[in-house]
């Protein structure tokens, strides 16, 4: 499991490395254009089974930490779907990879 570390808050959100790679591409594209947005996900039952959101802005430092040194193959359809979500009024909402129902839910800690 990789981690997305949000700003200086100490908040760490765990994602599978494959998921994190795709999120980095979508989030990076938005932030390069200086577009701020919410990023939301459903929490893993181990951390309360609720949902979480963070505000992403180019002024907030993000750190993507991968467990593996291998870069996974990219799923362009997944990137397209998540980019459309990120461009919506609701912001980027984590979705499972199309055709894959084994993606673990993210775990966050402050």
UniProtKB/TrEMBL annotation:
Domain named DUF7882 is located at: 1-97
Pfam families listed in its UniProt record: DUF7882
Name it: DUF7882 domain-containing protein
């Amino acid at each position: 499991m990789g981690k997305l570390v949000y700003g200086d808050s100490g908040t760490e959100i765990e994602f599978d490395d494959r998921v994190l790679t795709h999120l980095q591409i979508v989030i990076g594209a938005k932030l390069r254009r200086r577009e701020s947005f919410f990023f939301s996900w459903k929490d893993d039952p181990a951390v309360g089974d609720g949902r979480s959101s963070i505000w992403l802005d180019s002024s907030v430092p993000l750190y993507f930490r991968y467990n593996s040194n291998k870069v996974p193959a990219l799923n362009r359809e997944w990137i397209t779907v998540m980019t459309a979500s990120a461009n919506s009024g609701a912001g980027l909402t984590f979705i499972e990879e199309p055709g894959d129902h084994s993606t673990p839910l993210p775990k966050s800690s402050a």
